[in-house]
Each structure stands twice: as C-alpha cells, then as structure tokens.
From TrEMBL:
Residues 119-248 form the Nudix hydrolase domain. PROSITE patterns: NUDIX. It is an enzyme of class 3 (hydrolase). The keyword DNA repair applies. It comes from Blastococcus jejuensis. CDD domains: NUDIX_MutT_NudA_like (cd03425). The lineage of its organism: Bacteria, Bacillati, Actinomycetota, Actinomycetes, Geodermatophilales. Belongs to the Nudix hydrolase family. This is 8-oxo-dGTP diphosphatase. The keyword Ribosomal protein does not apply.
Amino acid sequence: MHRLRFTTLVEAPLTVAFDVARTLGRPWPWPLQEVVSVRPVRDVYSVGPGSRWRWLTHSRRFTATGAGTLVDEQVDWETGLPGVLGTVVDELVLRRRVIRAMQAHLDAYAAAAARRALDVVQVVGAAVVVGERVLVAQRSGGPYDGCWEFPGGKVEPGESELSALVRECEEELGVAVVPQAFLGEVVLDGVVAGGAPAASTLRAWWARVESGEPVAHEHAALRWVTADELDDLDWIAADRPLLPAVKALLARL
C-alpha cells in the first residue's frame, strides 16, 4: 500500500469547505464511489480494479479553526503490479502523478471555497468570560423566546468575523470586548438572511471585556454563570453544542 497526505487551510466555514470540495470532486480520471459522507466533517471515496490501480481510496477530514477550515486529505493506492516493476510504477510514476494532480486540485479548491464563502452569511458568537463565569443572554420574542444563547449575530458583507464579534457585543451589550481564542463551529440547520438552508454556521470565540458593564439592550436578561450552571439553562439549539468547549475554557482559566 502507498500513501500520501495533504493539508490545506481554506478561508471558509465548514459547510462551504465541504460543499465546494464535493462539487469539485477528486482530481482522478476515473469515477470514484462514495463510501462515507458525514457533512461537513468527513468523506471517503474509492475506486476498485481498473486502469493503473488495483484500488485507490481518497479520504478527507474537515476541522474548524479560527482561520478557517483545515482540510486533511489522504490518498492510498496500490497497483497490484508484481515485484520490482510494481515498486517502480508506484514510487516513481504514480506517486509523482498523485502529487501533481493533488497540488493543482488543492490550489483550485482553496480559491473556489474562499470565493463561495463571500456569498454565505455567517453568524458569530462570543463567550464573554470574567473570572470563572461566562455571560449568557436570554432571547426576547420570536420562536426562541425565553431561551438562552451566547451574544453575537450576523457578519455584515465585507466585515471580518472578529470585527463583527466586537460590533455585536457593543450593540447588544454596550461593552467593548477583545477576542481571545476560537472555541468552535456549529452548522445552522435553517436559513440565515435568505441564504441556502444549512449553508451558514455559528463560529464562536472566547472574549474578554475591555471596558463597560454589560446591559441587555436586545435581550430579556443577562446572567453570569459558572460551568456547573450551564446545563441547567434552556439553550437555543445552535449554541448547545458549544457548551463542552466553554466548560473546558472555564476549567483552565
């Protein structure tokens, strides 16, 4: 068996990185069969006997980071040619072709995903921490009336995610915050600002208060809670998956 690994950082959220990768396909002249597809975190495709391959498997994993989506790809193959001939073909011919094909493919993929990300409305959230407590906000009105969330909102066109985070905290809470570290990303199942269903994600950061005292300008109430109190709240669905990361953050501060 022969194996190559490739890593690419894509300036796009998980859903965009996954969907664009799926649309572009793989850089092989033979059709591959889908074996595993778990949107937006993993997929595996393979091809059986035919042409130069006994088999070829191409797998991808998508991981959210503060800078975008990290895409780890692995290509495994075997020609089935015997002895020295097989070694020469695999190592000196096919390995080089795989590398060339993947390099060209990944360059085009990263550019396409970055372009597509500009058309998808994103949402940012802030886990504002003071001491051993994090600030939570209670929704007022709408389908999630009375539920709790982390402050935040939509990223405006031409605005960076961190700029949007700072702006939303100023508008909703009346405080100036300084983003510290990326916490995680959650797929939003519904439609955000008229976009495609399940195309947007919530990307959350840990933030510290630089100045001001939080005031509920757009929420029914605000609370400072400890890690042990987080599970007792009635959370909106989008924010609940972030709780393990927030608990871990509070435990290490």
